[in-house]
Amino acid sequence: MPDLDALRAVLSRFAVDFDDRPPLSPFGNGNVHATYLAGTVPPTVLQCVNRAVFPDPRAVMENVAAVTRHLQKRIVCDGEDPLRGTLTLIPDRETGLPYVLLDGEYYRLTRLIPDAVSFDVAGPDALYRAAGVYGRFVRRLSDFPADTLHEVIPGFHDTRARFETFLSTVEADPFGRAASVSDEIAFVLAREADCGVIVDAMAAGDVPLRVTHNDTKLNNFLFDKATGDCIALIDLDTVMPGSLLFDYGDALRAGAASASEDETDLDRVFFKTENVAAFTRGFLEEFGEKLTPRERELLPFSVKLITLECGMRFLTDYLAGDVYFRTRYPAHNLARARNQFALVCSAEQNLSAFTALVEQA
Ligand code: GN1
Ligand code: MG
Q1: Phi and psi of 127, rounded to 5°?
Q2: CB neighbours (10 Å) of residue 109?
Q3: The pLDDT value given to residue 4
Q4: What residue owns the CA closest to ligand 1's atom 17?
C-alpha cells in the first residue's frame, strides 16, 4: 500500500480544492479496497482499487461512472437530491477521467455523503427502509443499456462455477489446510445440488437478466444519521447484468443476521425472521409487480444460496492462503466461513417461514 505522502500526491491530482492540507485516515470496513477518509472541506473518500479482485480497474471505473450518471438523472426526475442518493465521482483534473492512474494503481475519489452511517447489524425498521432503496435502485437501472456494462468479475454469482473453483482448491490444497477443515468441506459438498438452481433458472429464461448491484450487504447501504432514513446503496463496483435474487438474498444474508459475519460465537448467528419480513415487505412494495413468477418463488431459497456461496468463497480463500478477502487475523476467512454456514443452517430451518413471508407480503 502507498504511504500517506504518496496518497497526498494522488489526492492533489483530482479536480477538487481542499481548503487546507487534507487529513487522511483509514475508513470503513470493506473487505476489498484500501479506503481513506480524505479532507474535511470538502470531505471525500479515496480508494485504491484492488487489482487482485478487479483485474481491469478501468472497466470498473467506466461502469461506476456510467451507472452513477444514469442514477443521478433518475434521482433528479424523482425530485430527490442526486448528491445524496448515489455516489458522485470526482474526475482527474487533467484527463477528466473518473480515476487517477499512478504507477499502475487506479485511485478514485468520491464525495463523502455527509451525516450518513452504515451498519453491520440492524433492526426491522432499517431493513424496511433499505428494501425501498434497493427496489428504487433496480427500478432506476431497469432502462440502463445493460450491454454497455463490462463484466468486471466474470461469473461473479455463478454459484456452480464457484463450487467448481472450491472443489479444485480443495484438491490442490496449496497450504495443506484441507484436512483440518474436513467438516466445513463436507458441509459444502452436501449442498452441491443447490448451487445450480438459480443459474439454471436464468439459463431457462425463467429468471430474467437485469442490471443488478451484486453486493447488497447491509453495510453498503447508507442511512441518515438524524432521521434513520435509508439514503443510498453504495459500493457500485459489481453493478453488472445478473439476477436480483442474489441481491435480495445478499441483503438478508447480512441485514437479517443476528450478528455480523465476523462473529465467532455461532450460537449467536441466525436469521431474524422479523428482519426478513421487513425487507421482504419493503422490497415487494417497491418492485413486487415486476417480478416473474419464478423469481418470486425463488426469493426464500436465494437467502440460503447466497449465504452458502459466500461461505464457500470464504472457505475457498482460506484454503488458497487468504489471497482475495482482506483479513485481520490468520484464520479470519475460516471464521467467516463457519459463521456463514451457521446462517445457512438457519435459512434451511426457516425456509417455510420465509416462503410464508413472501406469500403474505
Ligand atoms: C466483499 O466489498 P465488500 O466488502 O462490500 C465482496 C462481496 C462479499 C463480501 C463479504 C467484489 O464485499 O462479494 O459478499 O465481501 N465483494 C467482492 O463480506 O468480492
Ligand atoms: Mg462495501
Answers
A1: -65, -40
A2: 26
A3: 82
A4: 32
The torsion angles phi and psi of 65, rounded to 5 degrees, stand at -65, -45
State the Cα–Cα distance between residues 36 and 331, nearest whole angstrom: 25
Q: Is the CB of 309 under 6 A from ligand 1?
A: no
Average pLDDT over residues 83-111: 96
Q: What stretches of the chain show up as alpha helix (H) in DSSP?
A: 4-11, 57-77, 82-85, 124-140, 159-172, 182-189, 197-203, 244-255, 273-287, 293-319, 332-349, 351-360
Residues 256/279, Cβ–Cβ less than 8 Å: yes
Question: For atom 15 of ligand 1, which residue has the closest CA?
Answer: 31
CA dihedral 167→176→185→181, nearest 10 degrees, is -170
pLDDT of residue 2: 66
Same domain, 346 and 228: yes
Peptide bond into 98 cis (omega under 30): no
Number of structural domains the chain divides into: 2
* Confidence at residue 32, expressed as pLDDT on a 0 to 100 scale: 87
Ligand minimally distant from the alpha carbon of residue 220 = 2
Query: What count of other Cβ atoms lies within 10 Å of the Cβ of residue 37?
Result: 17
Amino acid at 104: G
Q: Nearest bound ligand to CA 87?
A: 2
The response to whether residue 32 sits with its C-beta less than 6 Å from ligand 1 reads yes
Report residue 118's pLDDT band, with 50, 70 and 90 as the boundaries: very high
Is there a domain that residue 61 lies in?
yes
Q: Are residues 141 and 255 in the same domain?
A: yes
247-263 pLDDT tens trace: 999 999 999 999 999 99
What is the pLDDT averaged over residues 134-162?
A: 96
Q: Quick one: angle between helices 182-189 and 159-172, nearest 10? A: 150
Q: What is the pLDDT of residues 275-333, one digit of tens each?
A: 999 999 999 999 999 999 999 999 999 999 999 999 999 999 999 999 999 999 999 99
CATH of the domain at 267: 3.90.1200.10
Q: Can you give the pLDDT at residue 55?
A: 94
